[in-house]
Amino acid sequence: MIEVTNLTKTYGGNTVVKHLNFRIEPGRIYGFLGPNGAGKSTTMNMITGCLAPTEGRILIDGIDILADPIAAKKKIGYLPEIPPVYPDLTPTEYLRFVAEAKGVRRADVFDQVFRVMEETDITDMRDRLIKNLSKGYRQRVGIAQAMLGDPELIILDEPTVGLDPRQIAEIRRMIRHLGETRTVILSSHILAEVSEVCDHVMILSRGRLLASDTLENIRRDNTPENRVVMTVRGKQEEIGATLRTVSGVGEPDVTPGSEPGTFDVTVETEDGTAVIRERLFNAFAQKGMAISRLMKDEPSLEEIFLRMTEADYEEDEDENEDEANGPGAEDGENRIDTTSGDGGDGEEAEEAEEAEEDDYVPLFGGGKKNREDDDS
Length: 376
Prior knowledge:
Blueprint: E1 2-11, E2 14-24, E3 29-33, H1 40-47, E4 55-60, E5 63-64, H2 69-73, E6 76-79, H3 91-101, H4 106-119, H5 135-147, E7 153-157, H6 165-178, E8 183-188, H7 191-197, E9 200-205, E10 208-213, H8 215-221, E11 227-233, H9 236-244, E12 253-256, E13 262-268, H10 273-286, E14 291-296, H11 301-324, H12 345-359, H13 371-375
């Protein structure tokens, strides 16, 4: 359905999407999961043809979206983070306009508009002005416009942001319904949302793709095989001394627990978690120390997500530091200039303006527009 190769986006000297490679298979619901600023929206804008990549290639069902944008965009329905609705129109008027802009045959416009209103449950609101609708209903109108033209792929950018819990539940139900007949991609920074509706997850951080798999496989691949965690009530010195008497236990990590007088203990073992748990229980029971938790370490999805993104952040910081201190740094070649003087600001502004012009892609397809033609 979608094949992305070496996808990169750079603004000036800042690379916000870094050499992404992935495939989207038909008939599944995909989730782009990542913290704010991870590059999710930028990636979606490039996939939909709204933003030109600096490098890389995007194929939509075998069609290069930059070489033949009209054919590629006919296969895509897109809802940006802010729904592109006209507040002074009714849903019926707006959806008719979008259907015509998408090239739906005039004889089919009424049927398609009626059908998408039925599927998104906005029929009762069809004659109200959009500006008088709740945010949840405006979001539904946005999803309805994405469905017009019967695209094979629906892309939703943060579809539940700013909604109340009931509206969120309704939008998630709608997304699952869409996934029954279409391929769906949604972005979110909320793990619970992605885990509830998505079949496949792609974790992004600082423009990099950290993982692409089912949540079950991501959890399994990031769960240590031979680690045991426990919570013990007692003195730290006595806990450490007892741990040293248990064979097969590596260097323990002992930290204060959430309750006064308790300590959380993490140990590595090569003897298997079931065996070591029995040894630990017997050792602490003989010392009369109460154990409130003793189990194999199975981090939650939230913990795995945080570990992956924090590790990527630290790696990125190390890379930036290496670049700043690389060859020529002493001579000022790689030094970061934090001054606000005239040295180079004009050139940087010129480069930024040129980059912005290069990014311009017409909304309804066609190649990049030459703005010099407008001036002539």
